[in-house]
Design a protein that fits this description.
It is a single chain. The protein is an all-alpha fold and 297 residues long. 64% of the residues lie in helices and 1% in strands. The protein has a two-stranded antiparallel ribbon. The longest helix is centred in the C-terminal third of the chain and has 29 residues. It is globular and about 55 Å long.
């Protein structure tokens, strides 16, 4: 499987110009086959960019495309090793390169691996879109020529991919890698719990919210305690938070707990996700209260 996948990455649909550098693919394959260490791979996989003497956005995007495709397409056991690799790349020494940006108002600037330049923007452009809703609508239309069994399978694969993206984003946000913001977590949870239930796709959005709370719940709850403001919570939804200004607070957290309890009345996928998430949210709150009592005494 690996050989076929990496061959496609080097020449998507047989077009070499659209693929990643062969050395990047080889380095990543060796790493996932455990014949190279994380640090060795970070140096090897970035060498084609450094050797080009120009850290252009196109060269970077080809590397980011390779790593992002690996995150969403390869078996999930590779997600953590890939995140470790991204972290190692982000902490590489700054190369003595400059990025060329045309125009007098945009002078050359020193290139740095810190923050993984454009990684988050590329992820948002490619993976953060709501295209799954359009895909879902096409397979649920009564006039669809496919059989009920085929539609069910396609829905399952579409849902699995959506939940996996939420899982990856939460892991990246917690690790503070690639400029993936915690706001995306607030956005996912609020979409599932503050939108009118008739407009929610529960077996997609409730499990996606669960991924964020399960992985990033401590940070999300800390934001509630500190009154963190987020653009994601300023978006107009069906639940109105008057004069809130997009602020996360404990009242909102309690409301989310209640909504998760309500979703447990739905089908099996949503019931399991809702029950587990409500328990996680309650546990986070109780553990914080216990910690504060211990510190007080």
């Amino acid at each position: 499987m690996f050989d076929t996948w990496f061959k496609e990455q080097i020449a998507p649909d047989g077009v070499i110009e659209d693929g990643c550098h062969p050395d990047e693919a080889q380095a990543l394959q060796s790493y996932l086959e455990k014949t190279m260490t994380t640090q060795e791979t970070a140096h090897a996989i970035t060498q084609p960019i450094l050797s080009s003497h120009l850290s252009s956005s196109s060269n970077l995007n080809r590397l980011w495309n390779l790593l992002q495709d690996a995150l969403v397409e390869l078996p999930s056991i590779y997600i953590q090793p890939l995140i470790n690799l991204l972290n190692a790349i982000e902490n590489l020494p700054d190369p003595h390169l400059t990025t060329k940006t045309p125009g007098p108002a945009n002078p050359d600037k020193v290139f740095t691996w810190k923050g993984l330049p454009d990684f988050g923007h590329l992820w948002a452009d490619v993976h953060k879109q709501d295209s799954w809703r359009n895909d879902l609508s096409t397979i649920t239309q009564p006039c669809s020529p496919t059989t009920w069994s085929d539609r069910r399978k396609r829905r399952y694969h579409l849902r699995t991919a959506h939940i996996r993206r939420a899982h990856i984003e939460a892991r990246l946000a917690v690790a503070d890698i690639g400029s993936i913001p915690l706001d995306w977590g607030y956005d996912a949870v609020a979409d599932a719990l503050e939108t009118d239930r008739a407009a929610v796709v529960p077996d997609f959005e409730v499990p996606a919210a669960r991924e964020w709370i399960e992985i990033a719940g401590e940070k999300l709850y800390q934001g509630a305690r500190e009154g963190r403001k987020s653009w994601a919570l300023s978006r107009k939804r069906d639940v109105e938070w008057e004069e809130n200004g997009g602020m996360m607070d404990l009242m909102r957290w309690k409301f989310w707990e209640g909504r998760m309890r309500e979703w447990q009345e739905w089908g099996l996928v949503v019931r399991k996700a809702g029950k587990k998430t409500e328990q996680l949210m309650r546990t986070l709150k109780e553990e914080k209260e216990i910690t504060e009592k211990v510190e007080y005494f």
